[in-house]
Amino acid sequence: MTRQSSRSDPSSRADCLIIGGGASGLAAACVAARRGLRVTILESRDRVGKKILATGNGRCNLMNAGEPRYCGQAAFALRALERCPQRKILDFFHGLGLNTVEEDGLVYPATLQAASVLEALRLPLEGNPKVTVLTGTQAAEIIPGGDGFCVRSREGGLFEARRVIAAAGGPAQPKLSGSDSLYPALIALGHALVPPRPSLTALVTEKSDVRGLKGLRLPAVCTLCDGQGLPADGAEGEVLFAEDGVSGVCVMQLSREAGRLLDAGDRPTLYLDFSPLLGLAPRRMLHTGPRPAGARREEVLRWLRSRERLLGREHALIGALPRLLRERLQGLSGPALAGMLCAFPLRVTGLRGWDHAQVAAGGIDTDGVDPDTMESRAVPGLYLTGELLNVDGDCGGHNLMFAWASGMLAGESIASSRGGRS
């Protein structure tokens, strides 16, 4: 693998030029390189794979072994995963020499280190004279012409290739490489954009609703309701309280729907049911979908009355709730206290911004892309992959799984059209 500065041109026309050295771009590069194609990767940052290193809190949840769960244009993602299913993705990584382990349906590198994933992806590229990686090079324009393309960079470079894969990702986590810089070039070529917004991120609430609770981590059943009190989405898991809102996987699962409601001018409320903390419901992590808030009110009230008989009303919550939450509920008793324990209201005012979002909800409309190959319907020879598209999944490896699959499909399609060796 050769490296050049951002102002150098490859010495020869590439068979495949990949814009973006993230998950889908590197997967595509591995497939194409192994088929003997000349590959050029343009990466805007100083190194490839920076976002991969941060996934799964540094452990890199490669994929999900369960039922795929996607939003946006979900049918497109499911069709792509039919063509490149979970077993094929796992075989791809095993073929790169990466050992994996499964924990509760989540697949990780056996080392539990994201760096192992990046090392495995780089292996087919390192030392390959047909692979060129240009870091610090941001693509600005894709120009179809003749039997291929020219890609112009913001740094002044002009790169020729027979085929192009747009794998530049979306605007989430800009400090790690997230960017919306390629959207204009793709719109200019006839692709439509579904306006992106942060997803899989924390919720910002009225500060008064979380005052005094900062630092608490509590198991809860979460229900997001619209301004009329109708359930819009739900999840279970651990809730983390901050000074200006709440986070945790279960909260992040609800951020897509919360963003949609806020964009529509609605005023959603997140209700927390602490029944798992009270021993009245199992502790689990699950995206359940919408369910009524406060459904366990009578059960919680019976539990509360039994505690009052055992410890007295004044001390009924000692040993069951952390001090900060007890102090917040001080002065309540009977039905009012039971209501707060199973439907603690947090008025949602916004989402944490792009710096904190794991993915973007929105992106390039997949109606303009073939899900079997990732090839553009508007521009033959151009392929679009990964987070660039209007596909976003649940936490738990779904987003990386789609990135791998879409990148592999694009690489395979180009290699097949080129007649590369298998």
Give an account of the 3D structure.
By secondary structure, the protein is of the alpha+beta class. It folds into 2 domains: 2-198 and 357-418, FAD/NAD(P)-binding domain (3-Layer(bba) Sandwich), CATH 3.50.50; 203-351, no CATH class. 30% of the residues lie in helices and 27% in strands. The chain contains 14 helices and 22 strands. Strands 1, 2, 3, 8, 9, 10, 11 and 21 form an 8-stranded mixed sheet that branches. A 6-stranded antiparallel barrel has the order 13-16-15-14-17-19. Strands 4-7-6 form a 3-stranded antiparallel sheet. A hairpin with a 3-residue loop joins strand 15 (231-241) and strand 16 (245-247). The two termini are 20 Å apart.
The major beta sheet can be summarized as: 8 strands, mixed
Q: What helical percentage do the residues reach?
A: 25-40%
What coarse outline follows from CA principal-axis ratios? elongated
Number of domains: 2
Task: Count the E strands.
Answer: 22
Number of helices: 14
Strand content: 25-35%
CATH topology of the largest domain: FAD/NAD(P)-binding domain
Radius of gyration: 24 Å
CATH architecture type of the largest domain:
3-Layer(bba) Sandwich
Distance between the termini: 20 Å
What's the CATH H-level homologous superfamily of the largest domain? Answer: FAD/NAD(P)-binding domain
Unreliable runs: 2-11
**Structural class category:** alpha+beta
Q: If you average the pLDDT, what whole number results?
A: 94
CATH class of the largest domain: Alpha Beta
